[in-house]
Amino acid sequence: MRNLKVTFLPEGKEVEVKEGTTLFEAAEKAGVYVNSVCGGEGTCGECRLQVMQGKAKSDKHSIGFFTTEEIKNGYVLACQTRVEDDLVVVVPARSRVEMEKIITEGIPAYSEPAKESARTSRREPGYPFDPIVKKVYLELPPPTLADNVANIDRVTRELSKRLSFSRCDVSLRCLQDIADKMREHNWKVTVTVANFEGACRILRVEGADTTDHDYGLAVDVGTTTVVVQLVNLKNGKIIGVEANHNMQAHYGDDVISRMVFACGRGSPQILQKAIVTNINVLTAALVKDSKIDPNDITCLVASGNTTMSHFLYGLTPCSLRLEPYVPTATVYPQVTAKEIGLNINPEAIIEMLPSVASYIGGDTVAGVLACGMADRAEISCLIDCGTNAEIAIGNNEWLVTCSASAGPAFEGSGTKWGMRATLGAIEKVQIDGGQVIYQTISKGKPRGICGSGLIDCIYELARNRVIGRDGKFDLSRNDPRLIFENDVAEYILAFPQETETGQAVTITETDIGNLIKSKGAVFAAVKSLVDYVGLSFAQLGNVYLAGGFGSSIDVPKAIAIGLLPDVEIGRVRYIGNSSLTGARMVLLSGHAFEASRTVARRMTNIELSNYVPFMNEFIASLFLPHTDDKLFPSVHY
Amino acid sequence: MRNLKVTFLPEGKEVEVKEGTTLFEAAEKAGVYVNSVCGGEGTCGECRLQVMQGKAKSDKHSIGFFTTEEIKNGYVLACQTRVEDDLVVVVPARSRVEMEKIITEGIPAYSEPAKESARTSRREPGYPFDPIVKKVYLELPPPTLADNVANIDRVTRELSKRLSFSRCDVSLRCLQDIADKMREHNWKVTVTVANFEGACRILRVEGADTTDHDYGLAVDVGTTTVVVQLVNLKNGKIIGVEANHNMQAHYGDDVISRMVFACGRGSPQILQKAIVTNINVLTAALVKDSKIDPNDITCLVASGNTTMSHFLYGLTPCSLRLEPYVPTATVYPQVTAKEIGLNINPEAIIEMLPSVASYIGGDTVAGVLACGMADRAEISCLIDCGTNAEIAIGNNEWLVTCSASAGPAFEGSGTKWGMRATLGAIEKVQIDGGQVIYQTISKGKPRGICGSGLIDCIYELARNRVIGRDGKFDLSRNDPRLIFENDVAEYILAFPQETETGQAVTITETDIGNLIKSKGAVFAAVKSLVDYVGLSFAQLGNVYLAGGFGSSIDVPKAIAIGLLPDVEIGRVRYIGNSSLTGARMVLLSGHAFEASRTVARRMTNIELSNYVPFMNEFIASLFLPHTDDKLFPSVHY
Question: Which residues, including other chains, have CB under 8 Å from residue A572's CB and lie 6 or more apart?
Fold first, then answer.
């Protein structure tokens, strides 16, 4: 078979592949990421490429995804097209996975370690500064005939004066080094120890005092984006943060399609490799920027949903998505960096925040830690909403959780012009007197509309009576923006001349229906949980919004469409990337680590899939804001 | 550089090596083992080979080791000779490391597990049958929506009904397999678990009931010989045993020369590789014979002296042999088979019996376990004598230990015609009326004399007044067997016409002097320890002899020369390879495992090197049987 060259524009990346390789595989090899929801099954039509030069062989049925015009212009689906010639292809704007604004900030995770008293006195939301892996410098007495205990015992004896543990293990590698290190450095050594839950494990022994070089990573393994934060374990300071798209997107846009891939054509190992690559790429950038030795990174704490947690460890997710929704594990074993291929110190320990159930993961546990709701008597509600919405309600005595599929609408998929919150996405909309005033991300020409823009849109359309409370267009209006395409009514937000692609950006009646279902599912989940514990919304002291979803959301509008419960605006607080915050809290405090396990154990998860009250609530929620106006006393259209 | 062929006779093994390779290295590559005490330094003169065909280049100073006749006949030192031609060489009998009778038997390690009551009632010397790694077959309830705990939790929940543990870990590899195994086998799985000290670790998950295939290895890592025993972990039965020479012999005959090699020209890793090869070779033979899958071997317990224990784990031994005699570790971490390269189940756990000090190792702890002395009120003495003698005295309340260098005489080195207890070694001697009646191993023609033969010899020479109580020959006798060679008197045990080599087998006055020093060191060590705890020999209820040394020893003669204390013969008991027995006891009982650590902790080691009473005792012991006759009331020459 011949080797053929494929050039991807606009980046100009070139790759050599064997004849017959799909363009999808070639793009992966070139490091060019193209959209995919189905993961290369040929069913989502997202991986559109335009062949400019050369001959490519497409599967015939894939032409159904294109207009005659598009076919004439060389449009193909990457996953259904085989390379049979040297090719030059363009990745169109819609198919490019571009960098969006990834949320890498959260509320402070711990009290500042400056003053000794502050470390122990402040508890909310921080925990005492006490990293789960740390360096300890020891000046040991040299051995004598009267004191000739084993080298390792000399170290642990001194260590026991500094740290509290009932047993202390040592890695074989470390034990092989220890004698030489001690002698070469005149009995002055720095040991890196994992110390929590009453145990101690020596990971590394170095000569002399190296405590100034002591680093850890906090990682948010999101389905869409991955964030790695480099933290100084000596003082808790954040040194840097890097983010990128989850490379698993190549195998599917959401957790379900990736699970289907992992349990079908692919394997959990392929997805593990992708996410490990993500973390390694980000770590390499952080290490380079801050000029540190990756061997000085000796701990990584990751937080993610249950599926992502399974993939990071290469665990099969196959029973996660099917009733009765069984995870392989919810408390993940401690592993070393070398075991999963991370390019930091090979003996570095990896901890993952515990999951609760198939659809309540470590990211929710992290969120509860980050907002401190499990430490207070006051009752709070945490809403982390992406394709899936995770809800936690409770206080320092009890915690209940549930999750509901919100659909991809809020994340920018599943609507005609939906897109992620990247360059050119309409993120804010106001409609007044038939005029649409929109704001796009980075002030780019409109390319589509993201989650917060869609929420605004629904509200503004309803407020202007363009749609009714049932989400249907009022076709009696003579609105030039209201058009029909393929018999479906749609509303023009940006005319062709305003947009990047030259095509109008619209919202269709189908889109509106999908969004109402999405907001209905989230609200019904919150309502079901509140009812389950016999509360009313008025009793929720705080409503925390977590994740990218909440960052640009207009809270009054989200309440007005019935997405969020009708509570005082002041009680709604955006807590940023609380998954990352929680991971960092655990990295920096053994107490937070213990708390994460306690929180996970305390959570009672309500499985909504067969829960009749939820089904009723969902149906009642398919209205703007709700069929029961009394639930939204402050909302008036 | 040319490739050259070297053929080793009498085995006829051929090997191809690069020009310039030493014959010593060529022999190693060919798997032909030649004697070496210095480990290839060119100083011991043990690695003698005879070049029959071809040209070899010898270092000039090595000719000092040979007679003119020998040089003419092509004798060279393997380590000082480089291959410059295709060669045919003969490994002479004296230089061959041949298989001796390796002691692979000990007293029973545990009570027969046949009856349930017997498992718990019998304590001495056995422990309840409860292997530290075992297979457990579980029939799990299938998950439902009401019971959808994680797969691993479903397993540990059921496991906790069978075993006792406060926490249960699982290896990553195992967790990656578990979901598929459970589903494929209809929720019927067999888990292999390490379960001791309140912890539990799942090493392996298999579908269906595989408890009939559950094996472990007990290993005695001796300086000279290595013994591996294959044990059925379901019922405790010994399936087979294999033994070979420690391949580390290539780098030196004793622990000191191997340590010198490891800390100088070589490395601990080279010695680790050698001993791991030993165990792999023996395991391969056992597995083949018994037709079992090596993956079904999931635990290995090893016992050895502190140096051997360090080498098996690749730990540096460099501070072991130098004052103040500091080991790298005395309690060895649990490792997995894959970490040290053993060809059994990669996740199999390896445990090594704990050491006490540089010269009191896991083999002594094993000996104490095997004879049960630490469980009884009666005071016992354990003597394990090779090049080094280890002594333990104590009971269920206290234990003291010491070690003394006995020199290589009892192991067959360091005397003119000394050899190991292999084919043709004189092992028993009786002298009556100038006639020497000897018995050789396997009735071979005499090739030399081994430890037990030398003890007999000293006694018989003294009894016949051929030597005085000071070990000097009575030169006034007109004994045709008494001759002089190089001005040193020697006594002919076997005339040239009787021997394999055609040279007389003799014992020289120098040999006798060395043997008196050896027996003096052992006795002085026992005496020092007895004095240290304020006892007399009469208070020793039992004297246990361990190791190869004790197997063919004539106890009354050993007492008569002042090697063993003068106790009732009936109290002296040979306990065989107690290092192996102790390892097997730990393999088969978590209680024995705990006991091994308790015994090691309880042992108070007396460092004799600077202990003045020992020096005085040693000098007083350089006489037959002793300068103080009152210590040997039953001995009369």
Answer: A542, A543, A545, A555, A564
